Amino acid sequence: MERFTPDQAEELADFLTSSDWPFHSRVPDRSTVLRQVADGHWDGPSAQTFWIERRGVVRLFDLDDGSPLFDLRIAAAERGRGLGSRAVGWLTGYLFETLPANRVEATTRADNHAMRAVLAKHRYVLEARYRQTWPDRAGVLHDGVGYAVLRQDWDSGSVTPVNWEF
Fold first, then answer.
1. Which of these CATH numbers, 3.40.630.30, 3.50.50.60, 3.40.50.280, 2.40.50.100, describes 2-156?
2. Per-residue pLDDT tens digits for 40-87
3. Distances (CA, A) of 111 to 51, 134, 141, 143, 150
């Protein structure tokens, strides 16, 4: 992984506007990406972004609240080749090695089966279902799902199931 720097704003804008992102409700236009970079959205006090072999990008955010999240985007031509899985494994280790976080969180649409399989492979556990919360570009609402991996599970190679008893 190569750390994104703000002087690469044009390259990031090219990348984000040149591919289809079927599980993102908003695909930013070039000017939005450039403005976001200037505002620290992609690299700032609570966010870091990394290039994934220039075939993808991962934005780590909420780095200052103990439960960081990430946004992973793999170019359409590169999907299904294991790049996303390698990125999730890397980013999870990176976050646990560099932050005092107890957990790393991930959300995706319920129908994003590839991402859900990647999360399960890396010991992320399904913790939530958010009914009719994730709009697609046509405005149709889909369910979202929330996953997390605990530091203790990452360190031990185990999975602590969710206790659904109240």
1. 3.40.630.30
2. 999 999 999 999 999 999 999 999 988 999 999 999 999 999 999 999
3. 26, 11, 11, 8, 24
